[in-house]
Amino acid sequence: MKNIIEISNLSKSFPSPNSEETIDVFSQVDLEVIKGSSVAIVGPSGSGKSTLLNIIGLLDQPTSGNIQVNQLNLAALSEQAVAEYRNQTVGFVFQSHHLLPSCTVLENVMVPALAGFGEIKGDDTMDRAANLLEEVGLGHRLTHLPSQISGGEKQRVAVARALINNPSVLLADEPTGALDSKNSDHLIDLLKQLNEVKEVTLLMVTHSLEDANQMKKAFRFNEGSLSQDR
Ligand SMILES: Nc1ncnc2c1ncn2[C@@H]1O[C@H](COP(=O)(O)OP(=O)(O)OP(=O)(O)O)[C@@H](O)[C@H]1O
Ligand SMILES: [Mg+2]
């Protein structure tokens, strides 16, 4: 079976804001993710989960090591290719949804398609955004502003937005972190369905073991190392 993500020997350190020392977050991380799979990443607060997701999403760079996604070597991309990768290859669902407050639900979902990298153009963008919102159960909320919908609904808008450009990989950083158990179950069901029906590869950071158990595989960060739980 084909790996969509191949990470080897990955290390990340940050410069410390107030001393010469570095903060070594993790080192020698290896991770292989099969195309179409779903993977949970768990571990204590501060162990490097978001840092790893940010590196895979090209929002940050590793200190050393190799990372390939969709057979692209992420360290060797041109500026244009980085922008295209961020827009087209990966979809990101952040812990706090980051919706634009003055745009409607529909407009928020359309935003990533307006960058001009993809194939969807004009009216097709609006149709696709409306269809995705229908799929996540928000067809009746298209013209609401983010302030006029619930927390669970905002997170579902964020999922629709992450999918607008048909990404191969969906990166979700504690997508249920701010939700009650009913909304949380709803969102996990939605992500699982997207993974199973649309074959989007899903990488989800979570603090919830229950949510982690819904993924096909689980990995754990502990003291700077990543190991497979199951
Ligand atoms: N820009 C930065 N500069 C310096 N240190 C940083 C920076 N970003 C993260 N860190 C440190 O790196 C470590 C890992 O952070 P990260 O956000 O990946 O943790 P996490 O596992 O996602 O935690 P949580 O579960 O609380 O979200 C933390 O100790 C954090 O303080
Ligand atoms: Mg985090």
User: What ligands does this structure carry?
Assistant: adenosine-5'-triphosphate, magnesium ion
Mean pLDDT value: 95
User: Which CATH first-tier class would you pick?
Assistant: Alpha Beta
Mind telling me the CATH superfamily name? P-loop containing nucleotide triphosphate hydrolases
CATH architecture, by name, is: 3-Layer(aba) Sandwich
For the record, the count of structural domains works out to 1
* Contiguous uncertain segments of 5+ residues: none
What would you call the shape? Answer: globular
Q: Which topology does CATH recognise? A: Rossmann fold
Radius of gyration, taken over Cα atoms and rounded to an integer in Å:
18 Å
What is the spatial order of strands in the main beta sheet?
Answer: 6-7-8-3-9-10
Q: How much of the residues is beta strand, in percent?
A: 25-35%
Question: What separation lies between the terminal Cα atoms?
Answer: 18 Å
* Helicity level: 25-40%
Number of strands: 10
Structural class: alpha/beta
What pattern of helices and strands is seen along the backbone? EEEHEEHEHHHEHEHEE
The major sheet is characterized as: 6 strands, mixed
Helix run count: 7
Keywords:
single chain; 230 residues; alpha/beta; Rossmann fold; 6-stranded mixed β-sheet; 4-stranded antiparallel β-sheet; 27% strand; globular; binds adenosine-5'-triphosphate; binds magnesium ion
Question: How would you describe what is shown here?
Answer:
With 230 residues, the protein is α/β, with parallel strands linked by helices. The protein has a single domain (3-228), classed as Rossmann fold (3-Layer(aba) Sandwich). The chain contains seven helices and ten strands. The strands form two sheets. The chain has a six-stranded mixed beta sheet, sandwiched between helices. A four-stranded antiparallel beta sheet has the order 2-1-4-5, with no helix packed on it. Helix 4 (123-135) packs across helix 5 (151-163) and helix 5 runs parallel beside helix 6. The longest helix has 18 residues, at 181-198. The radius of gyration is 18 Å and the shape is globular. The two termini are 18 Å apart. Bound molecules: adenosine-5'-triphosphate and magnesium ion. The site of adenosine-5'-triphosphate (ATP) has 11 residues, from strand 2 and helix 1.
